[in-house]
Each structure stands twice: as structure tokens, then as C-alpha cells.
Design a protein that fits this description.
- The protein is an alpha/beta fold and 277 residues long.
- It has 3 domains: 35 residues, no CATH class; 158 residues, 3-Layer(aba) Sandwich (Rossmann fold); 76 residues, DNA polymerase, domain 1 (Orthogonal Bundle), CATH 1.10.150.
- It contains 11 helices and 9 strands.
- The chain has a 7-stranded parallel beta sheet with strand order 5-4-3-6-7-8-9, sandwiched between helices. It has a two-stranded antiparallel sheet with strand order 1-2.
Length: 277
């Protein structure tokens, strides 16, 4: 085991131990002690921590099957495609998508068909919404190492909390901010700046990881954060609302959430850009 260089023991007395990193010098046998450079990690929620769109696809498919069983005269895939077209127009959180679709098909509302769709959708959603692989491991590690954690989401407040609670994450984050809390959608930097203020962390000591370059990455960059593009979650562009919005190049790219730990290690060592982890 190495020994601390002369004078380091006294210097450590005035440091926060949760912000220290130790690196062994293989030649001298010393422990090189330094303060880490990142104190907070901000997560997008949907398609970053959880495969939201996969759960959405399954839920819509089950809802369509229930509407067909209730007498709606449609083909399954055509109905699924039509419902996602409504989402593209109205937004993925739109709550009256089945109302609109039923009226499109039969020209009026049928509460029996609507109720069948809603019940099937909710049952499928509750069973299909799961964390990405390694998400719990990563969160536990970050908490153990003393990082401050936040979620910044464009979802409505209640919907975001429903998802966090279903995933068992309702007590995990120091700060959770939704559109209802900030009044601004990404890439506006306001949600990120509000999160940083509540966490008590300056932008240069914070990081955002998200799957949407036009929103998460551009918004994080606008707020002065280090940025990680969760490419593993960006698989559903066909369902996105059409937009000519500008985008931004991320500082790092993650193909798996587990790579976030390696990215933090690089940032804490002073490497501010690294492409794919």
C-alpha cells in the first residue's frame, strides 16, 4: 500500500471527503489526492433512465387490441400507426389520444370503447415500464460516492412522478423538476439552471445525460453543463414531433448507462471531451 506524500494529511483535514478521489502512482507508490471536478449529475427521465417509448409501444398495442375486442372496426397496425401520428401532432404526453382516434374512426365518442382502451393501456404501461440495464447500479454508485442527483423532464409533473414511483425511484433524487415546475421546455436553459440552483452546484461542476440532442444536449450546453448523449435511448425518431430545431455535439456519448461511471472518471481527471466512452 502506498503512503501519502508529505503534507497531504494536513491538507485533507480541510476537504470534504465526499469530493476526494485517490489515484495510485505506480512508480512512487503514492496516493495522489485531488478534489473531483463534478459534483452533480442531472438525468433526463424518459429514454435515459427508462425505456419509455418501448413501454408506450406496448401500451398502445394493448389498447388497440382492447378497442378491437370492444367492436372498433380497425386493423391493429393501422390503428397503432394512426395513434402515434396523433402523438406526433399533439405531443407524446397528450391525454386525449384515444378520444380523437375513436372519433376519427366512427365519427363519435363511444365510452365503452374508450374505457376498454384506457384500462388496457394502464395495465400494460404498469408492467412494461422498467429501468434500463445497469440504471440501479449506476444510481446506487453515484449516491454512495456523494454526487447530488436531479431529474429534469419535459413531462407533466404528475406523469413524471407516476413513472418515478413505478420505477422505485421516488426517493432517489435530490431534485425533480418537470415542465409544471419550470414553465419552460428544453432546450431552454431555465430548467437546468433551476436544478443547479436547487442543488447548490455551479454549472461547470454539473453534468446532464439525455437521449435528445436537440433538447437535452443543446439545453445542457446552453446552461454551461458538461453533456453526455445517451445514444442507447435515441431509437424512436419515427415517433418524435417533426422539428427543424438546432442540435449540439455532446462532450461524451454513452452506448450504455454503465458508461456514465467511466465518463465521470474522465471528467474528474480533467478530460472535458471524449466522444464515445
Amino acid at each position: 500500500m502506498g503512503v501519502l506524500p508529505s503534507g497531504w494529511a494536513d491538507r485533507l483535514c480541510n476537504r470534504n471527503p465526499m469530493r476526494l478521489i485517490l489515484v495510485t502512482d505506480p512508480v512512487k507508490g503514492w496516493w495522489i489526492v485531488a478534489e473531483r471536478l463534478i459534483d452533480a449529475v442531472i438525468f433526463d427521465l424518459d429514454n435515459t433512465l427508462t425505456d419509455f417509448m418501448r413501454a408506450k409501444e406496448r401500451s398502445i398495442t394493448e389498447a388497440v387490441e382492447a378497442m378491437i375486442d370492444a367492436g372498433l372496426p380497425v386493423a391493429r397496425q393501422e390503428a397503432v400507426d394512426a395513434i402515434f401520428a396523433i402523438y406526433r401532432d399533439k405531443g407524446i404526453e397528450y391525454q386525449r389520444v384515444f378520444n380523437i382516434y375513436i372519433e376519427q374512426v366512427i365519427g363519435r365518442m363511444d365510452d365503452r370503447i374508450l374505457a376498454s382502451a384506457v384500462v388496457a393501456y394502464r395495465r400494460a404501461r404498469d408492467s412494461a415500464l422498467v429501468l434500463y440495464p445497469h440504471a440501479q447500479l449506476v444510481l446506487n454508485r453515484l449516491i454512495k460516492e456523494g454526487y447530488k442527483l436531479a431529474v429534469v423532464s419535459d413531462a407533466p409533473r404528475f406523469e413524471a412522478w407516476l413513472r418515478l414511483t413505478a420505477l422505485g425511484l421516488q426517493h432517489t433524487f435530490d431534485v425533480v423538476l418537470t415542465y409544471d415546475d419550470t414553465g419552460a421546455h428544453k432546450p431552454n436553459p431555465k430548467p437546468f439552471r433551476m436544478a443547479l440552483e436547487k442543488l447548490g452546484v455551479p454549472a461547470e461542476r454539473g453534468l446532464i445525460i439525455g437521449d435528445w440532442r436537440e433538447r437535452d444536449i443543446l439545453g445542457g450546453r446552453n446552461a454551461g453543463l458538461h453533456t453526455v448523449y445517451a445514444r442507447y435511448g435515441d431509437l424512436y425518431s419515427q415517433y418524435a414531433t417533426k422539428s427543424d430545431a438546432p442540435t449540439a455535439e455532446p462532450d461524451f456519448v454513452a452506448e450504455d448507462l454503465l458508461q456514465l461511471l467511466d465518463i465521470l472518471e474522465k471528467l474528474n481527471a480533467g478530460q472535458t471531451r471524449g466522444g464515445q466512452a
